[in-house]
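Re: [ENG-882] Designed sequences occasionally contain unexpected residues at chain ends

Forwarding the minimal case from QA. Structure tokens:
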């Protein structure tokens, strides 16, 4: 029903309790909404063309394994129900539970720097050490968005992309392979039906879902103006937590984050610990329970001989600088650098400031 505004659709659904009840009252919608405008009454009275379109779209969804999530249904993201401009219908493909206990959005500029990419990688790797069930949400765009999705995939965390078009297409096309992986380890969601044309306004509208579907929104890099700042503002309007990584003064793609922090629009974040403490997600009791239940992971399985050298060195003295590790293990600095990166991806070690490496226990 493109002729009916989103707010009017939500009002109708809330008044009727379900879409079926709305359809049953189309001939006299004032049964549900006594003060409905004459235009709304007229549009709904002649509902046959939209009904035919809806039947065709439902058939397409069934053929392509797309789940239709009506407003208020059990599988509809419950966090969105708290938002006054929540979509009345969502289209979803994937395996993630959209109502998982912990969901965060990671957003930022399409023109991310090496600093921004490193912030995303470290944040997700640290989150994985503590709770790999946290869902990472972003918009599948260039820059920070795709970095968040890809790092989540690398670290085995579920990741959901919010699209500004139908599920019959992927934009940008260069992200199709990543999107395909996300269907197995997360999912793709949109409010737009198939054959929706790309429109700049859709990307702005998409941002409210990114903000509303999550417990917290994290801005990694942003210029003084940008979509990330819009999303952060929407998240605040929903009374959601907003965090931002600070950047170096004068860097164009840190200016937005620094200004947001300065104006108390976001709390400073530099690590996963900052996020978990602010959200009250990381208690000592919870960590102990995870360790006792063996949830975190089994350590040091199937190590290579060279990896074993590094583990033994850090077991004797943890938090060694890379130059000291070279001396202790006898490994060449080039070989060791590559090896440490692989061990970090496996969750065996964690890099600290100053080229220091910490053995996870």
């Amino acid at each position: 029903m493109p002729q009916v505004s989103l707010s009017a659709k939500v009002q109708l659904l809330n008044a009727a309790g379900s879409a079926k009840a709305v359809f049953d009252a189309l001939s006299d919608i004032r049964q549900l909404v006594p003060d409905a405008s004459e235009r709304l009454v007229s549009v709904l009275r002649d509902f046959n063309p939209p009904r035919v379109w809806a039947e065709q779209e439902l058939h397409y969804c069934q053929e392509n394994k797309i789940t239709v999530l009506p407003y208020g249904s059990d599988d509809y993201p419950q966090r969105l129900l708290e938002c006054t401009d929540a979509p009345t219908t969502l289209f979803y493909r994937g395996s993630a539970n959209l109502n998982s206990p912990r969901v965060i959005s990671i957003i930022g500029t399409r023109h991310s720097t090496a600093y921004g990419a490193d912030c995303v990688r470290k944040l997700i790797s640290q989150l994985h050490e503590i709770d790999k069930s946290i869902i990472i949400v972003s918009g599948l765009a260039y820059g920070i968005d795709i970095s968040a999705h890809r790092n989540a995939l690398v670290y085995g965390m579920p990741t959901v992309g919010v699209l500004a078009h139908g599920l019959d297409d992927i934009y940008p096309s260069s992200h199709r392979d990543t999107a395909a992986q996300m269907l197995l380890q997360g999912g793709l969601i949109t409010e737009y039906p198939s054959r929706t044309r790309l429109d700049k306004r859709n990307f702005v509208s998409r941002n409210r879902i990114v903000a509303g579907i999550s417990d917290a929104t994290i801005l990694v890099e942003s210029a003084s103006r940008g979509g990330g700042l819009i999303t952060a503002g929407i998240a605040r309007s929903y009374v959601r937590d907003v965090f931002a990584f600070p950047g170096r003064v004068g860097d164009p793609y840190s200016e937005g984050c620094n200004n947001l922090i300065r104006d108390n629009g976001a709390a400073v974040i530099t690590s996963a610990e900052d996020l978990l403490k602010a959200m009250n997600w990381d208690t000592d009791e919870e960590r102990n329970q995870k360790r006792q239940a063996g949830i975190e992971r089994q350590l040091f399985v199937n190590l290579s001989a060279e990896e074993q050298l590094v583990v033994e060195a850090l077991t004797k003295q943890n938090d060694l600088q890379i130059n000291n590790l070279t001396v202790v293990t006898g490994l060449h600095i080039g070989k060791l650098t590559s090896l440490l990166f692989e061990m970090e991806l496996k969750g065996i070690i964690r890099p600290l400031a100053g080229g220091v490496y910490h053995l996870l226990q």
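QA comment: On inspection the terminal residues look reasonable. The longest strand covers residues 89-94. Proposing we downgrade this to a documentation issue.
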